[in-house]
């Protein structure tokens, strides 16, 4: 069977999404856009886990606040599958700053600020694979159609 390399991305419903009781609404938008959920869990990130996940931003002015925010409550990582997953998911969530996000995007609909912006999406196929492995073992990534 052909193994596609551009069909996976990692979403995280961030602590503001969970606190605002928006898990269901955001997952509905994601599923209605054609993404299949292949793994999902709720976790509270430790400071070390958040720093590891966002290591690329270490040293930026917003880094410490980002770690405080991402560890402020539980979040919901979700491994998603769809053709062209990374690009299509970035389109669905909109720009980092909700004030600049396109109408109808998840961040435009629900985010309060450039920091508290509801949802994470991987930015490349390579990072998608790395980020999915931050949260899920191979056994935890399921094909909803079974094997
Ligand atoms: P994205 O999540 O859209 O890929 P980045 O990777 O640039 O955005 O940043 C990671 C996260 O850091 C953002 O989603 C947001 O929560 C936070 N962040 C980014 N830029 C800023 C900023 N200028 N001020 C505060 N927080 C920011
Ligand atoms: Mg990013």
Bound molecules: adenosine-5'-diphosphate, magnesium ion
Q: What level of helicity do the residues show? A: 25-40%
- Radius of gyration (Å): 15 Å
Give the low-confidence spans: none
How far is the N terminus from the C terminus? Answer: 12 Å
CATH class: Alpha Beta
Number of helices: 7
Number of domains: 1
3D shape? globular
Classify the fold: give the CATH topology: Alpha-Beta Plaits
Please sum up the structure shown.
The chain has one domain (8-137): Nucleoside diphosphate kinase-like domain (Alpha-Beta Plaits). The protein has 7 helices and 4 strands. It has helices at 15-19, 23-32, 47-53, 63-70, 85-93, 106-110, 125-135, and strands at 8-13, 36-40, 76-81, 119-121.
Question: Would you give an account of this structure?
Answer:
By secondary structure, this protein is α+β, with helices and mostly antiparallel strands. The protein has a single domain, classed as 2-Layer Sandwich (Alpha-Beta Plaits). The protein is built from seven helices and four strands; from the N terminus they run E-H-H-E-H-H-E-H-H-E-H. The protein has helices spanning 15-19, 23-32, 47-53, 63-70, 85-93, 106-110, 125-135; strands at 8-13, 36-40, 76-81, 119-121. The chain binds adenosine-5'-diphosphate and magnesium ion. Residues 57, 62, 66, 96, 114-115, 117, 120, 123 line the site of adenosine-5'-diphosphate. Adenosine-5'-diphosphate (ADP) binds at residues 57, 62, 66, 96, 114-115, 117, 120, 123.
Throw out a few tags for this protein.
147 residues; alpha+beta; Alpha-Beta Plaits; four-stranded antiparallel beta sheet; 7 helices; binds adenosine-5'-diphosphate; binds magnesium ion
């Amino acid at each position: 069977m052909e193994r596609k390399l551009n069909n996976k991305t990692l979403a995280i419903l961030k602590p503001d999404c969970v606190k605002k009781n928006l898990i269901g609404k955001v997952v509905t938008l994601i599923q209605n856009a054609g993404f299949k959920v292949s793994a999902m869990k709720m976790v509270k990130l430790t400071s070390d886990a958040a720093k590891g996940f966002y290591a690329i931003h270490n040293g930026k002015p917003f880094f410490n606040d980002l770690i405080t925010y991402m560890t402020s409550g539980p979040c919901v990582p979700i491994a998603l599958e769809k053709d062209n997953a990374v690009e299509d998911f970035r389109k669905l969530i909109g720009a980092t700053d909700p004030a600049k996000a396109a109408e109808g995007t998840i961040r435009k609909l629900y985010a309060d600020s450039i920091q508290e912006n509801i949802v994470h999406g991987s930015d490349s196929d390579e990072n998608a694979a790395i980020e999915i492995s931050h949260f899920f073992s191979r056994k935890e990534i399921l094909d909803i159609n079974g094997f």
